[in-house]
């Protein structure tokens, strides 16, 4: 019973909401955001055809939380079981990135681990990629293949539910009466929908075709003057790192309460001027150009070198959120095209280009 058919989502979601807090996509003003599901309100259960505007990291790595208390030790937060529905493949891969940072042997964040253990992941296929999406450039796809407990694929007459973990399989078995066998025609329809979404994604990325890995493009272009130009358009709003599902930097600060002190942990951003300031006041990245370069090097090179997986999942949220209208795909393309442009210019000037290999 790993794959089943369901004509309506409400019976299944009512069961889940009876066991844990459930968050579902809510459509408003042209985008999807998370909303708490309440079975008593008869809420519409939307199938979000693209990723939500909010990153899933907010459920696992809150914007602000207590890290320590003095003089008494801080008590671990009570984390209730919860479920999140509507996550796409890019979201699942972003959780893998956070796991590397907060759940590895070298450093394990107990608060993160508790939330991770209590989370039920309900993903869904992506049928309508946004113009800003580029997941297939970053080893992703238009439908999840791993990292979920349940995955939902919408078809004309209902939904195909697929278990991806023991937790998801147990949920299906315990509620077997809700489901029916999956018709063969439904599988074919799902596969056609996925193929169409993949074609749509490829059309969006027509102008961004590279024959070398993205990390190599960024690493080779780390001394490019392009970063000076990019910095000129940046207003340092930090939206790119706040909305990014994989950016995980944080800083600690102390707060005095009536009879104790608490150390707070809050999201930080490498775009912020004082981010790299050290004790004594020195700052190796005072220039916005250097911070712009560092962000891309960390995103595409450093993290991959250390952990072996892509830190950028190609969700495109940074493109949508940027107040300076920067498009990270355009930056990659310019870096990719730059050596060719330089070689062409040398040929025009009567100079030979020297092979690099």
Question: What structural category arises from helix and sheet content?
Answer: alpha/beta
Number of helices: 12
Task: Give the terminus-to-terminus CA distance.
Answer: 54 Å
Rg from Cα: 23 Å
Indicate how many domains the architecture comprises: 2
What are the low-pLDDT stretches, counting only 5+ consecutive residues below 50? 351-357
Topology pattern, helix = H, strand = E: EHEEHEEHHEEEHHHHHEEHHH
Determine the mean pLDDT.
Answer: 92
Largest sheet: 7 strands, mixed
Share of helical residues: 25-40%
Tally of DSSP β-strands: 10
Strand share of the residues? Answer: 15-25%
How would you explain this protein's 3D organization?
This protein is of the alpha/beta class. The protein has 2 domains: 3-204, no CATH class; 214-348, no CATH class. 37% of the residues lie in helices and 18% in strands. It is built from 12 helices and 10 strands. The protein has helices at residues 10-19, 57-60, 89-102, 110-118, 166-174, 184-204, 214-220, 226-233, 239-243, 288-307, 317-321, 328-348, and strands spanning 3-6, 21-28, 31-36, 64-70, 82-87, 119-124, 150-155, 158-163, 250-256, 261-267. Strands 1-8-7-6-5-2-3 form a 7-stranded mixed β-sheet, with helices on both faces. Strands 4-10-9 form a 3-stranded antiparallel β-sheet, with no helix packed on it. Helix 7 packs across helix 10 (288-307) and helix 8 (226-233) packs across helix 10. It is globular and about 65 Å long. The relative contact order is 0.14.
